[in-house]
Design goal:
Shape: rod-shaped
Number of helices: 2
Strand order of the largest sheet: 2-11-10-5-6-7
Largest sheet: 6 strands, mixed
Structural class: alpha+beta
Oligomer: single chain
Strand content: 35-45%
Helix content: 10-25%
């Protein structure tokens, strides 16, 4: 009987050593999605069991684990014997601190400021006494969507169609776009009828615009860590049928030009007939002049000068002999052709 009794006494003696001396009051592993530039508190509250009242002090370590980092553990913040120590090489030493001035008072939580995308990783809190308790927080730092741009494409007139467009040039994917029509400019409301999703994620197509579509529209771009918005105002104007009006204006202008052309045709015809008549008159006068000279005068004229009399556009000339006798014997027609004939015999 001594054997079993001795075993029981040994088990009772070892029971305090098997108890957890440190316990962290957190529910398993945490997963956080945070925005770049924000600050966050990584909690690590703990309690000490009554069995762990020895003289040994509490030791605390915060370790950053990232896929890119290899080699020794990166202890970027620790506490031991009432001293806070900051690690090096992590880029966190200037942005991290314990929440409590004395972390030994059952709270090893820390605060990270000005988060960067490079801070993404697993953060492990270790509290040591006689045993070690561990708590992990997985942190993912992303960029919020940049403020988007909103604009319209198409004529904002009643009965027409218009495309509302929205685009953000920055932010961690995936980005989600959502349009809403604001109710009196304060809250989101339902989209009116006639609106459908466009081809691009940030497009909203509105067909058959009416007064019901007038108002302020807001585009909201979101991802896991935040959102941003832009707004635009729609005010459909009364339709003035610009296409039909332009066609009517073209018809009117064409009619006026056609009328002017028709009116100018008779004038051109009359002018052509007058020119033809004058040419024939000139040719006839030249023929009469040649007939009157008989073509027998062998002595040429000495001086030929224009006469001032010009009936029917014909310029008669005087032919003057050396002895002073004169007779109309030459002419110049309107075409500028100069005909010179010999004077008739004396």
């Amino acid at each position: 009987m001594a054997g079993p009794g001795a075993s029981l006494l040994l088990l009772l003696a070892l029971t305090p050593a098997l108890l957890r001396a440190v316990r962290i009051n957190s529910k398993g592993r945490e997963v956080l999605y945070l925005a770049k530039g924000d600050s966050v508190k990584l909690g690590c509250p703990y309690v000490l069991e009554p069995e762990d009242n020895g003289p040994q002090g509490v030791g605390i370590e915060w370790i950053q684990i990232t896929p890119e980092r290899t080699g020794p553990e990166n202890v970027f913040l620790s506490y031991q014997d009432h001293h806070v120590n900051y690690g090096s090489g992590s880029g966190l030493q200037d942005r991290v601190a314990f929440v409590q001035t004395d972390p030994s008072q059952y709270d090893a939580s820390i605060r990270l400021a000005d988060l960067q995308v490079s801070d993404t990783g697993t953060y492990q809190c270790r509290v040591k006494k006689n045993t070690v308790a561990v708590h992990e927080v997985i942190v993912t730092v992303q960029e919020k969507p940049l403020t988007p741009q909103c604009w319209t494409e198409g004529e904002v007139i009643e009965g027409g169609s218009v495309l509302l467009r929205c685009y953000s040039r920055g932010g961690t994917s995936p980005l989600a776009y959502q349009w809403a029509k604001l109710a009196d400019g304060y809250g989101g409301g339902r989209l009116p009828s006639g609106t459908i999703q466009g081809r691009a994620p940030g497009d909203l197509f509105i067909r058959s615009l009416t007064e019901a579509h007038a108002g302020v529209y807001q585009c909201r771009v979101t991802n896991r860590v935040g959102y941003s918005v832009c707004q635009l105002s729609l005010s459909p104007s009364a339709s003035c049928a610009p296409t039909v009006g332009g066609r009517q204006a073209g018809i009117i202008v064409g009619s006026i030009l056609g009328s002017l052309l028709l009116l100018s045709l008779p004038a051109l015809l009359i002018w052509a007939l007058i020119c033809r008549y004058r040419r024939k008159e000139c040719q006839r006068a030249c023929s009469d002049c040649r007939s009157s000279t008989g073509g027998t005068m062998t002595r040429p004229c000495n001086v030929c000068a224009h006469h001032s009399y010009s009936p029917h556009g014909i310029s008669y000339m005087q032919c003057q002999h050396g002895d002073g006798d004169e007779r109309a014997a030459a002419l110049i027609c309107n075409e500028g052709i100069r005909h010179q004939v010999t004077c008739p015999p004396l």
